[in-house]
């Protein structure tokens, strides 16, 4: 019993010694003409060191916001644990805002659409500013992107359209294309939800593969891909189609269908797989 207690204390001390923190920051975007909030996970010792770090961009879903991963998936505790055990490298994890709960009246989405050029903002303003401020290494070999649902689709399309920017992509329950009524809303009113749905259709990750030439496919092969979706998720067929299209195009991807639905219990488990995956594929 004494030995077990001593071991427990040692393990807890080890995790405590590897405790990072999440800070909230914001950036004014001249492209969006708005201030964009974001959370950043900083590993233990960040403030005392001058090291540069690999960067993971962790994207939320439709109707969510930049706080979701910290509040609903325990991102800090998972990162602390994985870094502490050596399953993940020290990294900064950036969780940008790209939406809000009122989907009809608040902009959601990671793509350019009328009045909301988020993709331009992300690559032209956000990535350079955040990596400069938080000492990101700032190259393809030390940058990864991942996300859930809308963020899973955003991650996939970002890597398709900017394969020179990311070493890996981990797509969780990804919203990869849009069909009428898919998110349970009417398509008749051209409000902000209408535009995000149309942007997903226009930026279909499935169509991208159908239309890609060999030079484009060769660039996609420089990215490590992981597709992860629950067996009872309403979007699982899209993940399967993406994997099969990538397989046919000889773009290697990992594909996992685990027990689960489109919810935070599933994505909590996904994050435990995603951070080590990104770590394994960073340049050493």
List the helices and strands and how they pair.
Elements: H1 2-17, E1 21-29, E2 34-42, E3 54-59, H2 68-72, H3 75-85, E4 91-96, E5 112-113, E6 116-117, H4 118-133, E7 143-148, H5 150-161, E8 168-172, H6 192-202, H7 205-211, H8 214-220, E9 224-230, H9 236-248, E10 253-258, H10 264-281
Parallel strand pairs: 3-4, 3-7, 7-8, 8-9, 9-10
Antiparallel strand pairs: 1-2, 2-4, 5-6
Overview of the structural elements:
The chain is α/β, with parallel strands linked by helices. The chain is built from ten helices and ten strands. It has an eight-stranded mixed sheet with strand order 1-2-4-3-7-8-9-10, sandwiched between helices. A two-stranded antiparallel ribbon has the order 5-6. Strand 5 and strand 6 form a beta hairpin. The longest helix has 18 residues. It is globular, with a radius of gyration of 19 Å. The termini are far apart. About 5% of the residues have low confidence.
Rough shape?
A: globular
Helix content: 40-55%
| Number of separate strands | 10
User: What is the gyration radius calculated from CA atoms?
Assistant: 19 Å
Q: Determine the mean pLDDT.
A: 93
> What is the overall number of helices?
10
Assembly annotation: single chain
First-last Cα distance: 41 Å
Largest sheet: 8 strands, mixed
Determine the strand fraction and express it as a percent band. Answer: 15-25%
- Poorly predicted sequence stretches spanning 5 or more consecutive residues: 4-16
User: H/E element string?
Assistant: HEEEHHEEEHEHEHHHEHEH
- What spatial order of strands do you see in the largest sheet? 1-2-4-3-7-8-9-10
Category from helices, strands and their pairing: alpha/beta
């Amino acid at each position: 019993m004494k030995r077990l207690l001593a071991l427990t204390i040692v393990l807890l001390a080890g995790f405590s010694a590897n405790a990072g923190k999440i800070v909230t920051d914001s950036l004014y975007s001249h492209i969006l003409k708005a201030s964009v909030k974001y959370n950043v996970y900083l590993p233990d010792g960040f403030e005392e060191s001058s090291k540069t770090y690999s960067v993971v961009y962790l994207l939320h879903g439709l109707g969510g916001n930049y706080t979701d991963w910290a509040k609903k998936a325990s991102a800090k505790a998972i990162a602390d644990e994985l870094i502490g055990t050596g399953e993940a490298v020290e990294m900064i994890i950036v969780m940008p805002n790209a939406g809000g709960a009122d989907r009809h009246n608040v902009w959601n989405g990671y793509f350019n659409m009328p009045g909301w050029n988020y993709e331009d903002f992300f690559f032209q303003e956000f990535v350079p500013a955040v990596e400069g401020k938080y000492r990101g290494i700032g190259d393809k070999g030390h940058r990864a992107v991942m996300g859930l649902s809308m963020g899973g689709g955003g991650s996939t399309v970002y890597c398709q359209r900017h394969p020179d920017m990311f070493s890996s992509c981990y797509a969780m329950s990804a919203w990869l294309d849009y069909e009428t009524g898919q998110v349970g809303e009417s398509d008749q009113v051209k409000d902000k939800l209408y535009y995000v749905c149309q942007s997903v259709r226009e930026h279909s990750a499935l169509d991208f593969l159908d239309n890609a030439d060999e030079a484009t496919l060769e660039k996609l092969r420089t990215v490590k891909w992981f597709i992860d979706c629950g067996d009872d998720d309403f979007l699982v067929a899209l993940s399967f189609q993406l994997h099969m299209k990538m397989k046919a195009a000889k773009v290697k991807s990992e594909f996992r269908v685990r027990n689960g639905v489109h919810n935070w219990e599933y994505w909590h488990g996904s994050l435990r797989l995603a951070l080590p995956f990104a770590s394994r594929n960073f340049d050493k």
